[in-house]
Amino acid sequence: MATYAIGDLQGCYSALLKLLATIQFNPQTDHLWFAGDLVSRGTESLATLRLVKQLCEQQVATTVLGNHDISLIASFYGIRKPHKSLQSLVAAPDYAELVQWLRRQPLLHYDPAKQTVLVHAGIAPQWDLPTAIRCAVEVEGELKQRDPTAWLAQIYGDLPDVWNDPFASDLDRQRFSMNVLTRMRYCHSDGRLDFHEKNHPSQVTDPSLKPWFDYAERQALGTRVIFGHWSTLGYYVSPEVVALDTGCVWNGKLTAFCLETEQHVSVCCAE
Prior knowledge:
Layout: E1 3-6, H1 13-22, E2 31-34, H2 45-57, E3 61-63, H3 67-76, H4 87-90, H5 95-102, E4 108-111, E5 116-119, H6 129-144, H7 149-155, H8 170-182, E6 186-187, E7 193-194, E8 210-211, E9 224-227, E10 236-237, E11 241-243, E12 253-258, E13 264-268
Parallel strand pairs: 1-2, 2-3, 5-9, 9-11
Antiparallel strand pairs: 1-12, 4-5, 6-7, 6-8, 10-11, 12-13
Helix pairs in contact: 2-5, 3-5, 6-8
């Protein structure tokens, strides 16, 4: 039995099929973890979302939500304009069904037996594991409400950019949590989130910026974190984190990491 964590798909259905064939995925014994951003930018978002939904409903896969998945949900409720790559998905007869399924997926998945957390972007350096889980569950509850339109209209924005306990409002806490889980890459030395720098750490010139997982005062989680979202970082492994966004949609690769063997497999997406 193997558990494979897979990086950002972003509508690269053909690459996903190629990767599943390469790892010889067996739904009878194996399980897939998707790191979010299932859709957008790629040309096959509809087929990708249908397949991931099917795998999750068969209980052979788990996915978390990424920022592009949230944007798709927001566009369904008229809050955002859908990405131009999503035209076939928006026109599909099962569009509403797919979005309703998507907005009920988690922002964080924790497997205590594997001592591993799966998120799209990361865990706030100020959070311990119970806080991370609590903040994710709170945002998930808002997404699952009967009509999340009003909430979605207020959740976008870069502020607050630092953890406060308590926050001025529940919405401030939820916006911060959403940004951490789906958008974060870097933190300033004072703990503020940065949403502008996207380059590889070796190319960053601001000495106050550190990857969230290298923040000096980061809380010990007692668990490993697997994440995507950061294509310029690429495949990166340490005892604390595994980064899996290897730029599939940018003619890069799609990568799967086996939790049991610590080995990874990548397929080229341009072929």
